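Ligand-bound model needed. zinc ion.
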Amino acid sequence: MIPATIKMPMKFECTHCNKIYMYQYPTNTISFYPTCPACEQAGLLLGTADTIDIVKHPKTFAKTLIKQISHKLGKSH
Ligand SMILES: [Zn+2]
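Prediction:
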């Protein structure tokens, strides 16, 4: 399933276009609010993404995960 080294992303809701989007913070500190990828408005923080969110929004989660993995690979050298 999900490797233990992968941190759960934070989940946001865009009230403007009623969309859920996720953002992976590199640390536990929330330094800024990521904007909605669709309309670029600041979203509403819903909290840490849960297993149920992966089931509900698999595409959103996959995108976030791919970003995180590619970021890690880019850092490793
Ligand atoms: Zn939006």
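The two ends are 26 Å apart (CA to CA).
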